[in-house]
Amino acid sequence: MNTIALAENAAMDTAATAAEKKAAFETNKLSKRLHRQVGQAIADFNMIEEGDKVMVCLSGGKDSYALLDILLNLQQRAPIRFELVAVNLDQKQPGFPEDVLPNYLRSRGVPFHIEEQDTYSIVKNLIPEGKTMCSLCSRLRRGILYRVAKELGATKIALGHHRDDMVVTLLMNMFFGSRMKGMPPKLVSDNGEHVVIRPLAYVAETDLEKWAVHRQFPIIPCSLCGSQENLQRVQIKAMIRDWDKKHPGRIDNMFSAMGNITLSHMMDRSLYPFTTIRATGQPDPAGDKAFDEDDDCGSPAVNSTEPQVVQWGLTKKVPGGPVPTAPEE
Q: Has residue 179 got a pLDDT over 60?
């Protein structure tokens, strides 16, 4: 091999090594960010407490895989003790690979339960061809999962909804329901018997997509509702993605706005006493600025001004304290 060829090979090897190092660096950053954000959400909303048994609903999609994966890692270094049990609802969809999830869960050493219920046939029989199936499917699935949680003695039910899901739900309710209603990170179930949590509340969907590729999750596509490409939810998700490409940070701002509400500047009479307010003669920093434009319009939203301390992947507020870097994975 001549000198030129040797030099070219050496240059290619150097470039490949540099690319590998860059990829490893970006993956490490992604891992730290995901674990920090999930730990932050858990701490902010007190999602998981000492002695909890958390039922992680596993669908076979990237979001629920990532949720279980991150919770397993946080479980090892959390300052509290809690159990995890994975639950999958086998809805008897044609071609559903029944062995994929059990094999994966056994490989991770995770206690699990597979609940078999033929909701697919029920939905197909009741919903006309071409119509949206999600609403009925969700109601059926929710009722079954609540029952399973009770049978397993679970104290929390963890779902894999992320930041983008929460923003899309807000817009869905605004556009089609004429109401300001989102998807809360923590709530009590419809029947009042369970606490439902969404530990991925602070996580961007694009990060979950990258994590799924890195972790090589055995993704199972949803042939029941995932193939319905014209769903309003899918269209709105595409819309906010487009907004975020043109104006980076817009999804973050919308999400932050959901936790930064000024009731006196909305219109819900059940939440603010508009009919009884009177002039006090005292300056009010939260008062109406009349026709002035907001000074901070267009500025990035800030989630919190309080410094946070990361502890084993979970966080604790320490006013005035330092903000250390997240722990190594």
A: yes
Which segments of the chain are extended strands (E)? 53-57, 83-90, 112-116, 156-158, 186-188, 195-197, 308-311, 314-317
3-state helix vs strand vs coil in the chain, percent to 5: 45, 10, 45
Query: Could you tell me whether strands 314-317 and 308-311 are parallel, antiparallel, or unpaired per DSSP bridges?
Result: antiparallel
Q: What is the pLDDT of residues 278-323, one digit of tens each?
A: 888 888 776 766 545 555 554 444 444 344 444 545 544 433 333 3
Beta-carbon contacts of 170 under 8 Å, excluding residues fewer than 6 positions away, are 180, 181, 182, 183, 254, 258
Q: Note the pTM of the prediction, 2 decimals.
A: 0.81
Question: At which residue do the structure tokens 């929390």 appear?
Answer: 156
Beta bridge partners of 158: 56, 197
Specify the pLDDT at position 85: 98
Taking alpha carbons only, the member of 169, 238, 164 closest to residue 201 is: 164
Is 68 in contact with 84 (CB distance < 8 Å)? yes
- Each residue's pLDDT tens digit, 215-235: 999 999 865 554 555 578 888
* Helix H or strand E encompassing 225: none
CA dist., res. 306 & res. 319, Å (int): 6
Query: Crossing angle, helix 3-44 and helix 62-77, to 10 degrees?
Result: 80
Q: What are phi and psi of 266, to 5 degrees?
A: -105, -155
Pairing of β 53-57 and β 83-90: parallel
